[in-house]
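REQUEST FORM: STRUCTURE PREDICTION
Request ID: SP-0412
Submitted by: Lab K.M.
Chain count: 1
Length (residues): 127
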Amino acid sequence: MNLALWIAAGLLAVVALTGGVSKVFVPEEKLAAAPGGEWTAEAGRGFVKSLGAVELLAAAGLVLPALTGIAPVLVPVTAACWVLLMAGAMITHVRHGSANFVVLNLAYLAVAAFVAWGRFGPAAFTA
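STATUS: Completed
RESULT:
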C-alpha cells in the first residue's frame, strides 16, 4: 500500500509540475492555442499564472513533506486540495466542450482521492 501511495503521489506531482510550469512560463497565446488550453484565452492572465503557482506548490506538497519528514500531514491535505482543483478543471472543460480532458481530470481526481484516503487512513505517516 505504501509503495502504491508513493507512486500515485509521485505521478500526481509530475502532472502538477507540468501543468504549473506551462501556466507560469508558457506565453498566454501559445497556451490558449494548445489542446485543452482554450479556456485560458477567456481567463485573466493573473488567474492563469496564480493557478500555475498553486500547481507548482501542489507538486512540492505531494512529495516534499514526506521526503523531509517535516509536516507529512501536508501530503494528504495537498491531495485533498488536488481533488477540489480537478473538480474545478472538469467543470471548466465541460463548459468548453473538451470531453477528453474531463475524463483525464477525473482520472487525476481519482488518484488524488486514493492518496488522500491512504495517507489520512491506513498508510498515514506517523510522527
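NOTES: Residues 2-120 form one domain.
Reviewed by: T.R.
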